[in-house]
Amino acid sequence: MTIDDGSLTGPEADHALAAEFALGLLEGDELQIARDRMAVDAVFAAEVRMWQERLAELALALTPVMAPARARHAVRERLGHSVAPLSVDPADRVPVWRGSAGWLTGLAVAAALAVAVFSPALRSPQDRDGQQTETAGYRARLVSDDNALRVDAQISGREMQVTLQAGAAAQGRDLEIWWIDPDLAAPVSLGLLPAAGGMRMSLPGELEPGADIRIALSDEPAGGSPTGQATGPIVAIAPFTSL
Amino acid sequence: MIARIAAGDRAAFGALYDATSAKLHAVCLSILKDRPEAEETLQEVYLRVWQGAARYAVNGLSPMTWLITIARNRAIDRLRARGSRPIAVVNSRDPLAPDLAETLPSAEPGPEAAAIASQQRRMLADCLAQLSDPQAGAVRAVYLEGWSYADLAAREGMPINTVRSWLRRSLLRLKDCVDQ
């Protein structure tokens, strides 16, 4: 690629080159020359950094999109951190079992779910009482079209209880729970509905309860959506209402 | 925090992931417009962060800019390797998929972005606003969607060299503006 703007003076051409390098527009020899120059030309390097800082503001203005929990686990596994958890972040409680269930089958799924469904209930209900008293509660009642499936979701503070009242997933399928926030770019998976009874979870930090939130259940392959977004039909959806 | 990560602190790394992954995922998605690819790229970004944290101190960038730059570079590498750009972006099998516009960069900063908006941010936005719409749109498309000069030329129906000259002028105007 040749430069067809001979009218640019030397300094201007340098300024433009720094911007193009920061934007990733350079290719081939020009890219290599700019890279080399970063190492030896402090003025050029500083100008590239200035562009990177300025332009990063555009990225910061993007709506955040939560990645599926399995991405976090995959990073941990690829770094060989899978024995010691990356952190003890409370948000981890929700994703852990969903991520681990994704690659298990048959009885292993049932076992993993049993552990996952019940362990958050043992660990989390009491540890945020302070917030619970300050924050309003919300409830959503999910009912399928044929009335066969009924699920209640109730939020108190940052704890959510999901209870299966009636119905079940189809044979060999799972029902996945989705949090739909108009301010988030995509629905966020909250994991799989237990085959019986209820589950309790701490909401991840990014999720803010409110009356504009809806919750949905989608019909998914055993173990949950393989893509991190709903792949099957929505069998029930409901808004949260303030208690 | 990055110094702790460079020292092998996994808890710090986990905290960094939790604090920044949704933003970096948005960057990857904005460029790649494909969920599985964005997710895979996001993983690569954090592998690089873990491995490159020790070198961070010498690169002179603010922490978030460093992370965004890594995410953007990885996503663009993948985009260029792919060769072609998918036009239809929304997965039609996803009944919950939001309108694409929601995942694309908006000219208006969100509330969160507005809250942390610096003087610099306002200046960049102001300066972009002083460019013509096509010029500002081209800068955004290149930065946020990873467009190349060839993409711009195809979109504008102009030769690559003409597009390049036009964009370089825009960038110089932008620089003059933010330098004031």
Automatic annotation (TrEMBL), chain A:
This is Anti-sigma K factor RskA C-terminal domain-containing protein. One of its GO terms (cellular component) is plasma membrane. One of its GO terms (molecular function) is sigma factor antagonist activity. InterPro entries: Anti-sigma-K/W_factor, RskA_C. Residues 107-234 form the Anti-sigma K factor RskA C-terminal domain. GO terms for biological process: regulation of translation. PANTHER family: ANTI-SIGMA-K FACTOR RSKA.
UniProtKB/TrEMBL annotation, chain B:
Pfam families: Sigma70_r2 (PF04542), Sigma70_r4_2 (PF08281). Keywords: Sigma factor, Transcription, Transcription regulation. It comes from the Bacteria. Residues 122-174 form the RNA polymerase sigma factor 70 region 4 type domain. Transmembrane segments: none annotated. GO terms for biological process: DNA-templated transcription initiation. CDD domains: Sigma70_r4. Residues 16-83 form the RNA polymerase sigma-70 region domain. One of its GO terms (molecular function) is sigma factor activity. NCBIfam families: sigma70-ECF (TIGR02937). Belongs to the sigma-70 factor family. ECF subfamily. This is Sigma-70 family RNA polymerase sigma factor.
